[in-house]
Amino acid sequence: MRYIVIVEYQVFPSLREKFFDLVRKEAATVVEIELGTLHVTSMIDRTDPNKFINLKIFEDSDAYEVHKNGEILKAFLTSADEMIIAGPQIVFEGYQMFSCDDYTLEQKSGNDLSAYFKR
């Protein structure tokens, strides 16, 4: 059964873009290399642009354990440490019951969300 983990980060305002770039790199890498990582969606809070939420979908809880103890996540957290005020904080961990969409917002819309930071 698919396993879901949602993690929240609060980052320094001056490092938002750098964090966003790091999150994108980590997401692409884990989906490509970790076979049990099926999907990653990264989100920015509407009212607090320094708050990021990452949604990760794994094949099962064993795949999450592989990810949690893997080198990709360790490298991400080491690089992100200087950018983070608070977190990572797990806000949800459990099993997927239903999904009606297997695409990230960026993939489906065709929009490059990095332009958000250039305003």
UniProtKB/TrEMBL annotation:
| This protein's name | Quinol monooxygenase YgiN
Q: Name the species this protein comes from.
A: Paenimyroides marinum
What is the superkingdom listed in this entry's lineage? Bacteria
Q: Does the keyword Oxidoreductase apply?
A: yes
Per UniProt, residues of the ABM domain are: 3-92
* GO terms of molecular function: monooxygenase activity
Q: Which SUPFAM superfamilies match?
A: Dimeric alpha+beta barrel
Annotated keywords = Monooxygenase, Oxidoreductase
Gene3D superfamilies referenced in this protein's UniProt entry, alphabetically: 3.30.70.100
Keyword Glycosyltransferase in record = no
